[in-house]
Amino acid sequence: MVSTCDLDELRGLFIFEGLTDAQLMTLCADGWVETYPAGELCREGEPAEYFYVLLDGEVALSKRSGTRDIDIWRAATPGSYFGAWSAFLLDEETTYENTATLTRPSRVLAIPATTLGNLLVRDFTMATHLLVGHSHGRFHQRRILGPHDRLVQLGQMTAGLTHELNNPAAAAVRAANGLRTQIAGMRHRRAELPSAVAPDAMDSLVELQDRVAELAGKPGDLTSVEKSDLEEALGRWLEDHGVEGAWDHAAIFAEAGLDIDWMERISTSPCCGPDRNGLTPVIRWLASTAETELLLTEITDATKRISTLVGQAKQYTQLDRAPFDVADVHELLEATLAMLSHRLGPNVSVVREFDLGLPQLPCYPAELNQVWTNLINNALDALGTDEGVLTLRTRRERDMVRVEVCDTGAGIPDDVLARVFDPFFTTKPFGDGTGLGLDIAARIVDQHLGSLWVESIPGDTRFITALPLLAAQNPRASADDRP
Fold this sequence. Notes:
16 strands, five-stranded antiparallel sheet, 14 helices, alpha+beta, 3 domains, disordered C terminus, Heat Shock Protein 90
């Protein structure tokens, strides 16, 4: 249903406060009032033809992010406006900055963008100049800072991932080279066996080799002290029995978990002969077998670590996950730590105080990872190069998950504490930060219907996030249901 404007109704709306009847009539001359059904009224990116004012009903605004729309604002207050925000530019190429969706049948005043723009330019010249300057400044700000922030995050993730991948990759290369050398040596040692081992005793040697390989292929549970003591005992035993290279073999056998009982078993085996004259070549052969298995285990462990890191990178980026999902908050925190591991130097101790009984959290995992990234980065900045402790703590409080990122840094002064979530506010030197990290984190948490706040005294700063354990549905669908 379409109708004309009611000037008395418009005078009561905050957006038109101070306008004269003549100015209101100018807007109404080309505008109209219409009751629209629930549904989309204007789409982000389309030509901005109309400026809308809500008279009765409810509107939700969303903005495109990647392949999905993210709810950013919802209002039912008469006078709420949306649509051609930048009508004052009088630019035919201006597009809608948001998608506006009416959540129920709503009565709306529609004003052509050119009508509103001409009124602003004619009657509010100075204000229009300020708005134009602000609009252009915001455009340049997004153009410069947007790619910069994305590059910073990409750089952080890449630095952490490459740092962590380098260690297992180097270990795998080192073990592979060692294995190649070991196999070459075994070909030569094999030539020693026929003269040292009787043909009818070869079966016992094969059996020993299989058992040694099986034992060496299993991860040992000896401490470094126990392993050192075992190596000392094995070295003396082998030396006492006239085995050449006794201490080299002792180190390998200790690493593989073979003890003195195993040495006695080998020495009394038929393959060593009744006078044990074949003990040295048999020990050398079995040591080569054990070392080969240890090198294979090292390669396996290194490649598993690489696979785990790739999995953590996928968990961090959520590239193969649905935008909205249920997630283990501890897995998200661990994935973020893995990406920031290059910043966890020897001076930083990481303490995890996790409530392992927490249920899965319905959320946008990739966005929460951005929150954890910003909070952990800030904590590490606070610790600096001094020794300190980074604590990640989780627990359940009624229907909320509470996540604390704590540091033992100098703390945040009271005059700064009230401003840490303000956009563009930063205490870092010029060029080291944009002042948007905590603002972005707070916005993401707010869109999850949660809360983010900070408590700080010297030696104990805590950024605390509380997130609701809602049913597995998009929390933004009920963004206005909060008290």
